[in-house]
Amino acid sequence: MDELKVFSGNAHPQLVGEITKYLGLPVGSCEVMHFSNENTFVRILENVREMDVFIVQPISTPVNSNLMELLIMIDAFKRASAKRITAVIPYYGYGRSDRKDQPRVPITARLFADLLTVAGASRVLTVDLHAAQIQGFFNIPVDELTAVYLLSDYFKKTEFSDLVVVAADIGATKRARDVASRLNHPLAIMEKRRIGNIDKTETLNVIGEVKGKTALIVDDEIDTAGSLVGVIATLVDKGAREVYACCTHPIFSGPAVDRIAASQVKKVVVTNTVPVKDGKISDKLTVLSIAPLLGEAIKRIHTGQSIGAMFEK
């Protein structure tokens, strides 16, 4: 492990501290700052020549600033002769822009992939991409971890005799099916429609039986929580006795936390792929640490072990 070094941008230093604690290593020493003209400056404060370098930086708010920090850090390590540079991106920002679903729009998730490669990343490690096809945007290895096991293990501790796992939409079906399989409970699917480019959806129907049951909503991320609150209201209207929710990425933009607090959900369980600020904590929210999962993956990549074997249970 002497040749392994883990560095942090400004996006989520607390998570990086947890990862390095798991690995028994100090956080790598570097300076990442912004000048008065908003230009980003990076200076590596230790020797990284021929080292296996991991840069941990979720692309969370402020998204564009954190993205540029990551790209500039990669370039700095490449020019400092690091042997291999792995971009550890717990939350892959711009992941929703994965296809041309309207005329004359970009595929920003692909552009981001190209930028990472051109900057000098040798490999990418991420968690629960919004769309699986994003892996195909890269010409370098991409390891995608999943929080499904972490989230489902949390709910295994509670005995639900009448639980139904609910996919928040058609796109979340595979993830929800995996959770349902691990919990050994049936699956239901919400049918909904996104309205234009605004963060608003219309819930149309529930495919499956939820009346008199405890519903567990599964999704990859919660942004403004407008969609989540709509799903909760529909499940209650369809006769669900209690509603829980879980997701990997707690983006919590704008009124998200207030909406969750005012909704009829009993608990929302998330991971810390992005920082959950103190002002966004509520009594209904439980945050699980993704650090051991990322730390183990970093160790396995460094030592040449299988990542897939982590999930073979």
Domain count: the total is: 2
As a whole number of angstroms, the C-alpha radius of gyration is: 20 Å
CATH class of the largest domain: Alpha Beta
Estimate what percentage of residues fall within beta strands: 25-35%
Mean model confidence by pLDDT: 93
Second CATH tier, the architecture of the largest domain? 3-Layer(aba) Sandwich
Shape: globular
Order of helices and strands: EHEEEHEHEEHEHEEEHEHEEH
The low-confidence parts are: none
Key terms:
globular; 313 residues; 26% strand; 5-stranded parallel β-sheet; alpha/beta; 2 domains
Q: Explain this structure to me?
A:
- Helices cover 29% and strands 26% of the residues.
- The chain has 313 residues and is of the alpha/beta class.
- The chain has 2 domains: 4-146 and 292-311, 3-Layer(aba) Sandwich (Rossmann fold); 148-288, 3-Layer(aba) Sandwich (Rossmann fold).
- The model has no long low-confidence stretch (mean pLDDT 93).
Summary of the model, kept short:
With 313 residues, the chain is α/β, with parallel strands linked by helices. It has 8 helices and 14 strands.
Give the arrangement of secondary structure elements.
Blueprint (H helix, E strand, L loop, with lengths): L3 E5 L4 H11 L6 E5 L5 E5 L7 E5 L6 H17 L4 E6 L18 H12 L3 E5 L14 E4 L2 H9 L6 E5 L5 H11 L3 E8 L6 E7 L6 E9 L3 H12 L4 E9 L5 H7 L4 E5 L13 E4 L2 H13 L10
